Amino acid sequence: MKIILANGSPKVGDSASRIFLAYLKDYFTDQSRQQPEAVLRDEERKILEAEFHAAHIPEGTMEELKSADALIFACPLYVDGLPGHLLSCLMQMESLLRNPQWQNPGLRIYGIVNCGFYEGIQAQYALELLRNWCARTGLAWCGGIGIGGGGGISMMPAVEGGHGPRAPVEKALAEMTDTVLQQKIQENKYVSVAFPRFLYKLAAQAGWRQSIRANGGKVRDLGKRPEE
Amino acid sequence: MKLIITDLENFNIAVEGEYKLINPHGEVHPCIGCFGCWVRTPGKCVIRDGYEGTGIEMGKCSELIFISKCCYGGLSPFIKTVQDRAISYIHPDFVLRKGEMHHKRRYQNIISLSAYFYGENITEQEKETARNILEANADNYDGTVKTVCFYQTAEELEDIRL
Ligand SMILES: Cc1cc2nc3c(=O)[nH]c(=O)nc-3n(C[C@H](O)[C@H](O)[C@H](O)COP(=O)(O)O)c2cc1C
Description:
heterodimer; A: about 35% helix; B: Rossmann fold; 7 strands; binds flavin mononucleotide
């Protein structure tokens, strides 16, 4: 089985999307964590990563897609939708996929959209855009996850054994792994980090204050209204 | 002031009153997710390519009008990229609105949002997504939605008045 993990964050280095894809990669390669019915022991598993950081399809991706079984996008929510650069890539892919040369009827598409706000449900329309893209390109949309509190995930410790603030997200990602391996479809699932919302808000706001000071600015400049 | 953001290079639509137009004039660089528009040059995007001031223009407008090819139920890549680059319109701090987390206002103006989408065979699902996203944008900008409408071609739009 060949799975392509597509990182749709514009950030080349660390990003929440990268953290979620790393979990998926671990789950796909560690069979002990999977549901017995999802474990296809004899089958070779190939996990590839595609870096969708700019407004063009990463080199070699279309070629790999021809023989892939699943393509999983992980990206941030940008103004209630997909980031502009990823949208450009999707449009380029749509036009290439009209050509039989690139078509692969067996390809299944999944999506993980993480957001800065606390409620994972705020990512629902970005997942709808991915679903609508699949409908236009003739690809099979197989469901996704909306993750709330993604903006804080890198600051939250990873705790073993299904505990800690990342736990609900890890659980949703593990379930998606099983869905992908069993070539099934899932309803979109919406989760938030296990961290109280008011504390998340306070921590983020403290973070902005720290950041503006680190950049040589003053806290009151956070509300600045430049003229031009 | 009406702020019109469109992907049409040749803009031939009648507009009543004062307006400002943002349409393709050279390539737009995508947002890089750095939040520099909140913590380095508050109110303005740090990428200097001619599209860094949209957040400021949004702070001056009473209406924000998108004229866009409908892409899967959303704005086209050019307009979406301009919109991504303009999150400095809002303040980084959070508020709760309708029970959900959103951002605080930076400016006092209340934006009324409209979208005129064009494209062949826009599906019902795409139309629904488009309406939903505009409503969500209005919640995020703490504004309102005026109209969302759909046309088969960009030429049909030349008969409207904004
Ligand atoms: C331009 C821009 C627009 C954003 N819009 C939203 C939004 O509408 N709702 C939301 O919850 N978070 C929004 N965010 C926050 C990101 O979704 C959040 O920081 C996410 O964790 C980034 O993921 P990444 O690290 O994988 O890129 C926005 C961030 C940027 C830079």
